[in-house]
Amino acid sequence: MVQHLDRLRETPSQTAGPYVHIGLTPNVCGITGVTPEDLGARMVADGVRGERITIRGRVLDGAGRPVNDCIVEIWQADAAGLYNSPMEHRGAADPNFTGFGRCAADEEGVFSFDTVKPGPVPGPRGATMAPHVSFWIVARGINIGLHTRMYFSDEEAANRDDPVLRRVVPARVPTLIGRREGDTVHFDIRLQGEDETVFFDV
């Protein structure tokens, strides 16, 4: 007999660890021969257009301790504000830029990406979004990956007009701003506590 359900029940959740590094960054774990290099390990190739930068930061728990078993992924537009995606219809993205990076945090919770500073991109209702990088963080004990964004401290005017930042409580906006120092942008991600980074539902 067929059972008719008037609703769908949620399936049990599953954490990402303790094998998150093995599955997502096998070469980092010393498991070689699967792929020549881990997916997302290299974002730029020779001839990439735009300003080369390094995004560097730490993932910290509520007590300020490093989270050393996490994976950090980023997605972003290229220097012209175009995405390397089949859904991009505004023009051709830079062929020397993937727009996607993946990094396993080290024992101090540190991650680092060699990339380019993204250009502004279209936002909702014809608005323009300030240059930003989207982050996804997953680790043991996190049932659903955490999504956030990093904006640039040297884009004050664009940040002020950004439609996403305008929806964030003003006191929380600093948790989304990466601090520029030359060609390095520092961005710490705090998973809990009073300085917790703003995370978004996607």
Q: What report would you give on this structure?
A:
With 202 residues, the chain is mainly beta. Helix content is 5%, strand content 28%. It has helices at residues 20-24, 156-161; strands at 52-60, 70-75, 100-104, 110-116, 121-122, 128-129, 132-139, 146-152, 177-181, 184-186, 189-190. The strands form two sheets. Strands 1, 2, 3, 4, 7, 8, 9, 10 and 11 form a nine-stranded mixed beta sheet that branches. The protein has a two-stranded antiparallel ribbon with strand order 5-6. A hairpin with a 5-residue loop joins strand 5 (121-122) and strand 6 (128-129). The N and C termini lie far apart (38 Å). The relative contact order is 0.19. The model has no long low-confidence stretch (mean pLDDT 90).
Q: Mean pLDDT score, rounded?
A: 90
Low-confidence stretches: none
Percent helix among the residues? under 10%
Order of helices and strands: HEEEEEEEEHEEE
How would a textbook summarize the main sheet?
A: 9 strands, mixed
Straight-line N-to-C gap: 38 Å
Q: What is the percentage of strand-forming residues? A: 25-35%
From the alpha carbons, calculate the radius of gyration and give it in angstroms. 18 Å
Number of strands: 11
Class from secondary-structure proportions = mainly beta
Number of helices: 2
Sum up the overall morphology in one term. Answer: globular
